[in-house]
Amino acid sequence: MNVGDKAPEVLGINEKGEEIRLANYKGKKLVIYFYPKDNTSGCTTQACNLRDNYSELRKAGYEVLGVSVDDEKSHQKFIDKNNLPFTLIADTNKELVEQFGVWAEKKMYGRSYMGTLRTTFIINEEGIVERIISSKEVKTKEHAEQIINQ
Question: What is the pTM of this model?
């Protein structure tokens, strides 16, 4: 997925088992942030930064969706534990991470594995990718600021 591309209509299943569609956000700017795993330090820091600045994001016209390959139950626990005010998509079949091009080989402690690259896509009111904050650019402690102060 690149700047100028149309986001897919079906985004996936949320923590409640409901299908989330792009059409649900028509007329709004949408932040779709991909993160590696629920309840890990960096992912919790990022989610809590978005939570703490959620009203500012909403005032600026943004809705927020988080996506990881964790299941619905894991997402619900993550939401409950951290009081997250936004929806999380359980991309267990890795469809969305692959469509957006964020499922890739990663290396840690000398071993290679497949995982999600922490990446944020800003989708405009027409469903077009307007901006991408790449895995090298995402600052978990200041993520909302990065989105608002483009």
Answer: 0.94
